[in-house]
Hints:
Elements: H1 5-17, H2 20-27, H3 31-45, E1 50-53, E2 56-59, H4 61-84, E3 91-98, H5 99-116, E4 120-127, H6 129-137, E5 143-147, E6 155-163, E7 165-170, E8 178-179, H7 181-184, E9 188-191, H8 197-207, E10 215-218, H9 222-231, E11 236-239, H10 244-248, E12 252-257, E13 264-271, H11 277-293
Parallel strand pairs: 3-4, 3-5, 8-12, 9-10
Antiparallel strand pairs: 1-2, 5-13, 6-13, 7-11, 7-12
Helix pairs in contact: 1-2, 1-3, 1-4, 2-3, 5-11
Amino acid sequence: xxxxxxxxxxxxxxxxxxxxxxxxxxxxxxxxxxxxxxxxxxxxxxxxxxxxxxxxxxxxxxxxxxxxxxxxxxxxxxxxxxxxxxxxxxxxxxxxxxxxxxxxxxxxxxxxxxxxxxxxxxxxxxxxxxxxxxxxxxxxxxxxxxxxxxxxxxxxxxxxxxxxxxxxxxxxxxxxxxxxxxxxxxxxxxxxxxxxxxxxxxxxxxxxxxxxxxxxxxxxxxxxxxxxxxxxxxxxxxxxxxxxxxxxxxxxxxxxxxxxxxxxxxxxxxxxxxxxxxxxxxxxxxxxxxxxxxxxxxxxxx
Length: 302
């Protein structure tokens, strides 16, 4: 008796989500169907894959050993399906984007997806990378584009490149072209929350001189931070491409930090075993859109 891809899929999502009911909901199947597939898989492999843990299920040692191999087989099965008919991709996908990245790249991406995959239904979620990682981990997202992600177990990270970021200030401050931590320490700073990539960039930069900004306000919106910076009420670390219009309008100056900032490493992330046809199509569209607008730098030593 051989195991099937459907049995491995039921096993994989039961482990990842921790219960039969959640796996059934994710796969749009009944709970008895999931139970039957797990039983048949255990019989085919002649091992016990789960044990009861409270009201849920936990993998046995044999189950944990099977998990990475099952994930690899499921991804390979998806690749084979995509090669069979790569032009037709249907279904839906929920994909998240770091806000600063989305403000520049999302218009081109939407046009790319509509042109290349007209039957794909996409929902776009915009937030800070930390929140997107949490939603991805909780399976509320199928894919996310993250800046300087923390990285979580069970998630694949696909490096895309480097998002150029810099200190940006209103021309009224008369700063530049070079700035050091001591120059900006007395001035008002605004950033995302402490767990964000932006906050970490700022704290790490000031820490090179053993300093902290005297006034560091927080805001959950990158777009609003850009507006605050161009209005002259605070300074911020922002994606350079996002601020191009304000630079051309003479409202802000992009400053050259000494030492350099830790620039934003951009990754696409999705759950192991989650390389479905919609996810693969969106990954291709993201890369195509980034190439079209020449958004990212090649990652490498600085």
